[in-house]
Specification:
The structure holds two protein chains of two kinds.
Chain A: H1 10-22, H2 33-42, H3 49-57, H4 60-70, H5 84-109, H6 116-140, H7 144-153, H8 156-164, H9 172-191, H10 198-205, H11 217-231, H12 244-250, H13 254-261, H14 264-274
Helix pairs in contact in A: 1-9, 2-3, 2-5, 3-5, 4-5, 5-6, 5-7, 6-7, 6-11, 6-14, 7-10, 8-9, 9-10, 11-12
Chain B: E1 5-12, H1 16-27, E2 32-36, H2 43-47, H3 50-69, H4 84-87, H5 89-108, E3 112-115, E4 117-122, E5 125-129, E6 135-145, E7 149-151, E8 164-166, E9 179-183, H6 187-198, E10 202-207, H7 218-230, E11 234-237, E12 241-246, E13 252-256, E14 261-264, E15 266-269, E16 273-275, E17 308-310, H8 321-336, E18 348-350, E19 356-360, H9 363-367, E20 374-379, H10 384-388, E21 395-400, E22 406-412, H11 416-428, H12 434-438, H13 448-469
Parallel strand pairs in B: 1-2, 1-6, 2-3, 6-17, 8-15, 9-10, 9-15, 10-11
Antiparallel strand pairs in B: 4-5, 5-6, 7-16, 12-13, 13-14, 18-19, 19-22, 20-21, 21-22
The chains are: A mainly alpha, B alpha/beta.
Chain lengths: 275, 470
């Protein structure tokens, strides 16, 4: 149980949230059981669609979500999919993993009472970032599924921190600034406990590092770029907004960005269908 | 746009060929510049070519070698949910270290590096645009194009880099697939096919030619094919894919020209690469690619335009890092008037499991020479070291002229890419096969194959001579 004294100033709020993360005192949202089991089952070498179908069937909310995703343009169903079995077949193992993560992230992000509008906005942004991350990964031959998950889950820490800050007495903008500062670390803490979330956790933890080094550096730059692209309105000129370090690391030149940006309607439609 | 910078040599591309060209120029005291579009030097070789694929292969070969050597005492079971990432855990570190090494080497040699995309505006001038759109101009009396190649973008195979992959995206797979169809029978196709097969993936090679790796000795390739099939792989030679489609659920379906169908979790499209020349503005200087899509050069790597050279994968096969490096070095020497020894005999290394190497003349080429050729064979399974290591596949073919002069070697088996250097030195040194008999090598080693193959040649020669003498 956390009992906080009212923080004195902006810095104190940030410090308090930082302390709670370091102390492991956050209430970390676990993915819904069914989604976690689907993620684990779809990641096995001997993954069996029949067994996964059975797992999904036991959870009506997950089943409904999978049906919706199976009917989205992401999976380009030639005819409407009405049965769960059809949906599982259509999604395949990769698709099931993605869909289960969408369900898990939705459940983790939209759970804070009183912050629904803010968190819904963040969730929509995350879906857009997932769409852009996927596009960028395809363009740069980086792992598409991992990129999708990084985009989808990069802001999950914000929801956790809004909840953690519920007992702090401070103006909203002060709390928001503190959350802005710590959301990456909080997100990594959440994901480290999720099935198959380890690699994504490291990228999420460092996604605001302007000069990342080491093995995941390219994926971190990719996520930073996807995060930016997801914030740009479709009719806006994107060039001045983009982080040059990420462009340089991924070797994305103006003509490549123009090509990517021409896909903005498809990415938005994709995010809308998932959300 | 900033004013032009003047260099003695500008190299476009920092892959193996480009690096060696620039370093050679710099070592000769000339001012060299590399224009590279990616942030790190190394080209495809480091980012998604030689280095990553060989790192994965090293893991696969170690697993295969351990099981073989243990003689069945130990078996290795794959962990569930084995990810490519876990197999290449060292990969990030290897790539980063290699990039650092290259960057240090370029810095030590005072080679200037600009990140940007280069475009010819004149025979001796390049416009270089950065990721931020800023433009600067580089000028030099000689320009070396070393931009490499990229996978061919087929119109009839839906490469989505997720289910249907090419050689640039295959290592972006997150999970090891249960099955993989490989379209193509060239070096890249066979290297990945045998690596994935050694990791327990059910691999099928589909290739239109009668056998994979058609440019290599048939006997050597037969040994490779046998080992690949023993690892669970299948070769569908003389077959072409008529249709490839991701079924939208769980499999890539491939229909072959004989009407049969293959179903696999993933498909690797490895049917050829094309020169990376888009955006270079070759037409501005009157250059074009040849009928096969590569830049054509003469023996000094000069293109049709004076002062412009091309080296490495951008000029087409053999598309090997070894060859590319030597081409880069030679092009720089020619461009800058640096004297150079006559071209040596470069070896070929194919990093399949088991690996294959070749140097000098093959059996057919040597046999076509006046006087013909002699061929000696050594099977690794008959060598002490081979038996100790449980080697089932392994063959050295030593090729010599009638008088015993070493002309070439074709090797398949463990350490083939290293072993071949002995033959390379023998060719360069003008040695005769007797040298392998008269000068012992360590026992037990696979190097003993040279002695066995040399004796095979000498015995064969004696046998051929004996009837006449009688």
């Amino acid at each position: 149980m956390i009992v906080a004294d009212p923080p004195a100033d902006d810095l104190a709020v940030a410090d308090e949230l930082g302390r709670r993360i370091a102390a492991g005192a956050l209430d970390l949202p676990a993915p819904p059981d069914a989604a976690a089991r689907v993620i684990a089952a779809a990641s096995r070498d001997d993954a069996d669609l029949g067994r996964i179908s059975e797992l999904v069937r036991r959870d009506p909310a997950l089943a409904a979500q999978l049906l919706r995703i199976a009917n989205s343009s992401l999976f380009a169903a030639p005819a409407p999919i009405v049965s769960l079995q059809q949906a599982v077949l259509r999604l395949g193992l990769d698709g099931l993993r993605k869909a289960a993560y969408v369900v898990a992230s939705r459940s983790a992000m939209l759970r804070v009472v009183g912050r629904e509008a803010e968190l819904r906005r963040i969730y929509r942004h995350s879906l857009l970032a997932a769409g852009w991350a996927q596009e960028l990964a395809r363009a740069r031959r980086l792992p598409v599924e991992e990129a999708f998950l990084c985009g989808l889950l990069h802001d999950v820490g914000r929801a956790v921190l809004w909840q953690a800050a519920a007992d702090l007495v401070a103006p909203d903008d002060v709390v928001a600034a503190a959350i802005d500062r710590h959301h990456a670390a909080a997100g990594a803490a959440v994901l480290a406990t999720w099935p198959a979330g380890g690699a994504v956790a490291e990228v999420v933890r460092r996604h605001h590092d302007p000069a990342p080094e080491g093995a995941p550096a390219r994926m971190i730059h990719l996520l930073a770029l996807a995060d930016h692209l997801a914030q740009v309105a479709p009719d806006q000129d994107i060039a001045p907004e983009l982080p040059v370090a990420a462009l340089a690391a991924l070797a994305l030149y103006p003509e490549d960005i123009d090509l990517l940006w021409s896909r903005r309607d498809a990415v938005r439609a994709f995010a809308q269908e998932l959300g | 746009m900033t004013g032009p910078a003047r260099h003695d040599l500008v190299v476009i591309g920092a892959g193996p060929a480009g690096q060696k060209a620039a370093i050679q120029a710099s070592k000769a005291g000339r001012r060299a510049l590399i224009v590279e579009q990616t942030a790190e030097p190394g080209g495809a070789c480091v980012s998604h070519g030689t280095i990553p694929s060989k790192t994965l292969r090293e893991t696969a070969a170690a697993l295969e070698g351990f099981q073989r050597r243990s003689g069945g005492v130990f078996t290795i079971e794959r962990r569930e949910a084995l990810t490519i990432e876990s197999l290449t855990r060292r990969l990030g570190q290897v790539v980063t270290e290699h990039e650092t090494l290259i960057a240090d080497q370029l810095r030590r040699n005072r080679v200037e590096v600009w990140q940007g995309r280069a475009r010819f505006v004149a025979r001796d001038a390049l416009e270089v645009r950065g990721v931020d759109g800023a433009v600067r101009v580089a000028r030099a009396s000689a320009v070396v194009i070393a931009t490499g190649s990229r996978p061919r973008d087929p119109s009839d195979v839906p490469v989505d880099h997720e289910h249907v992959l090419d050689s640039d995206s295959i290592l972006s797979l997150r999970y090891l697939p249960a099955s993989l169809v490989v379209l193509g029978g060239g070096v890249i196709a066979c290297e990945y096919a045998s690596t994935f097969a050694a990791l327990g993936v059910k691999v099928t090679i589909v290739d239109g030619a009668d056998r994979p790796l058609g440019f290599l000795d048939a006997e050597v390739v037969e040994q490779f094919t046998r080992a690949f099939e023993r690892a669970g792989g299948t070769v569908r030679a003389g077959r072409r894919a008529r249709q490839v489609r991701w079924n939208g659920r769980d499999a890539v379906e491939t229909r072959l020209d004989d009407g049969s169908e293959l179903s696999s979790e993933k498909l690797l499209f490895a049917l050829g690469r094309v020169a990376s020349v888009a955006g270079l503005g070759l037409d501005a200087v009157g250059l074009a690619t040849g009928p096969r899509g590569f830049i054509e050069v003469d023996r000094h790597f000069c293109t049709a335009v004076a002062g412009i050279y091309a080296v490495g994968d951008v000029i087409g096969p053999p598309s090997l890092a070894t060859t590319a490096m030597e081409q880069g070095r030679r092009a720089a020497c020619h461009a800058l008037g640096i004297p150079l020894l006559a071209s040596g005999s470069a070896p070929i290394g194919v990093y399949t499991i088991p690996e294959i190497a070749s140097v000098g003349l093959g059996e057919a080429e040597a046999a076509a020479r006046p006087g013909g050729a002699l061929v000696g064979r050594a099977r690794f399974a008959e060598l002490a070291r081979g038996r100790i290591a449980g080697v089932e596949d392994g063959l050295m073919k030593l090729i010599a002229a009638r008088d015993g002069l070493v002309l070439g070697a074709q090797i398949v088996g463990e350490s083939a890419a290293d072993l071949v250097h002995v033959a390379q030195m023998a060719i360069i040194g003008g040695l005769h096969v007797d040298v392998f008999v008269d000068h012992p090598m360590n026992f037990p080693t696979l190097g003993e194959a040279y002695r066995v193959a040399a004796l095979d040649i000498l015995n064969g020669a004696r046998a051929a001579v004996a009837p006449d003498a009688a």
